[in-house]
Amino acid sequence: MNEITQQVWGFTPESPSGEGGGEAVILYTMTNSHGASVQLTNYGAAIVGITVPDREGRMADVALGYDRWQSYVADGPAMGKSVGRYANRIAKGSFALDGTTYRLAINNGPNHLHGGPTGFANRLWEGRVEGDRVVFGYRSADGEEGYPGALYVEACYDWDDDNRLEITYYARVEGDSTADATIVNLTNHVYFNLNGHDAGSVLDHVLTLHASRYLPTDETAIPLAAGQAPASVEGTPMDFRTAHVIGERIGDSFQQLVWGKGYDHCWVIDPGLADGQKTVAELYSPKSGRFVEVATTQPGIQIYTGNWLSGCPQSKNPNYSYSDRDGVAMECQAFPDSPNRADFPSVVLRAGETYEQHIVYRFGTK
Q: Would you say the C-alpha torsion 102, 222, 267, 87 has a positive or negative sign?
């Protein structure tokens, strides 16, 4: 049984016209019977902290984040946030749906990233406690960030005595005609450091991925054409089917790693595993003994080794600032640029349908 507490973390600033702002930013803390906890905020429906024991029983916060809610506003890393309406990249910010071409903001090189400059990550969601869970809701207007269709989304967080954090994303188009449709791809952008959020590099962490294929990209991080992507991981530094230390091959002169400045790629989860129950990935720290296992219903998992963390807002430790590769994100999601790829699973959501995807992070020690 969780204990859930709430506190006001701050208030959004008043707009110059006096017509908006002054809304409460809430910090939620979910604590299980063993004293392990998860902190969340309604700004960006974000994970602020995850405090779990090491092999000696010592507690530490293993999720990167900030000590002030204001640091979450438009931060480059999207630290711990729920990103959408479309997580990851859409080539040249353009896609077609039902014969109409839509133009989105270009905010990552020549491409559209994570739903745009504001997206869902930089919105204040409505938060509520429902029994043992925290639920965030957000209503996205038709045309917001250039996307078609009014959309209602929810991010539900459950935390149990097995140190299992489950995130469930729901979405529905607010319309009653099959002509009302949009594209949806939601994920969480939490960064892990299993030695503690302010413990430095994660290059000593060990990663296992149950994925025999990945999506090689061009130099702008858009997956290559059909026939070139997906590609086998065999014989490449992208092969984590057996456990590898993250830093072991990250500096190889492999073109994909050079372009990404490290790992920033989507792996195709092996068939039969994306059921929300089976483990699709594991991150382990030999130093602390902590591990986190990942399960999901999504077809892909983006591994991002925090290659551009330097210069982001100050950490939760006032005496420590994050550097590149201080955290690793494991983002369960649909494939990048799926709206432009008939060979990828569809991301179209129509009126009357329900989008439901699950991401599970289970923490333990060994």
A: negative
Residue 56 structure tokens: 């000696």
**φ and ψ of 302, to 5 deg:** -90, 125
Give the residue among 241, 260, 247 at the shortest CA–CA distance from 304.
260
Q: Measured in whole angstroms, how far is the alpha carbon of residue 359 from the centre of its chain?
A: 10
Q: Which of 112, 189, 197, 205 is catalytic?
A: 189
* Per-residue pLDDT tens digits of the chain, which is 366 residues long: 689 999 999 999 876 666 667 899 999 999 999 999 999 999 999 999 999 999 999 999 999 999 999 999 999 999 999 999 999 999 999 999 999 999 999 999 999 999 999 999 999 999 999 999 999 999 999 999 999 999 999 999 999 999 999 999 999 999 877 779 999 999 999 999 999 999 999 999 999 999 999 999 999 999 999 999 999 999 999 999 999 999 999 999 999 999 999 999 999 999 999 999 999 999 999 999 999 999 999 999 999 999 999 988 889 999 999 999 999 999 999 999 999 999 999 999 999 999 999 999 999 999
Extract the tokens encoding 182: 């949009």
Whole-number Å distance between alpha carbons of 144 and 58: 45
Owner of token pair 């809430």 = 26
pTM over 0.90: yes
Identify whether 154 is a catalytic site residue.
no
